[in-house]
Design a protein that fits this description.
This protein is of the alpha+beta class. The chain is built from five helices and seven strands; from the N terminus they run E-H-H-E-E-H-E-H-E-H-E-E. The protein has helices at about 15-30, 35-40, 70, 100-110, 125-130, and strands spanning about 5-10, 50-55, 60-65, 80-90, 115-125, 135-145, 145-155. The chain has a seven-stranded mixed beta sheet with strand order 1-2-3-4-5-7-6, sandwiched between helices. The longest helix has 18 residues, at about 15-30. The N and C termini lie far apart (about 35 Å).
């Protein structure tokens, strides 16, 4: 694929949110075998979702930010820490910088909400990606949807 131009935005309208869910289904449910009934959860209703779209409107990636009380269970109860999750980039868009752009957009959304740090649960194969973006792993490895993960944090 030649140089692809894309934009990242907060998914505010229903069509953008549906595009986010479609990317997650493609990456997590179809590609990684995560059961659909655990991929979508009650947090989706209040999360800030971000979406990367190619100039022609094709969705390339997504991620979400949880904050406040709904994030507390994932961040050790610290309300100043947001939770980055459900980061997914389509096969065709990998290697284009979409994942980095999505993480930075989620961090910007966290800063806009006055948060001091962002936590995430990284699949262990992705630890290096997040480390390059300034995240530090902590705690033991644990399974999530049958996939090994580690908790990571970046102070904003």
């Amino acid at each position: 694929m030649s140089r692809t131009s894309y934009a990242v935005r907060v998914a505010e309208d229903p069509a953008d949110q549906e595009a986010c869910f479609a990317v997650r289904k493609e990456v997590f449910v179809v590609e990684q075998g995560v059961p659909q009934e655990i991929e979508y959860d009650e947090y989706d209703a209040t999360a800030t979702h971000v979406l990367a779209v190619r100039d022609d409107g094709t969705p390339l990636g997504t991620g979400r930010l949880l904050y406040g009380e709904v994030a507390a269970g994932k961040t050790g109860g610290d309300l100043t820490v947001g939770s980055l999750g459900r980061l997914a980039v389509t096969k065709e868009a990998r290697g284009l910088g979409v994942g980095v752009a999505l993480v930075r957009a989620i961090e910007d959304a966290a800063r806009a909400r006055g948060l001091a740090a962002v936590d995430l649960h990284a699949q262990t194969h992705a630890l290096g990606f997040y480390e390059r973006l300034g995240y530090e792993a902590y705690g033991p490895e644990f399974p999530d949807a049958g996939i090994p993960h580690r908790a990571m944090r970046r102070v904003l």
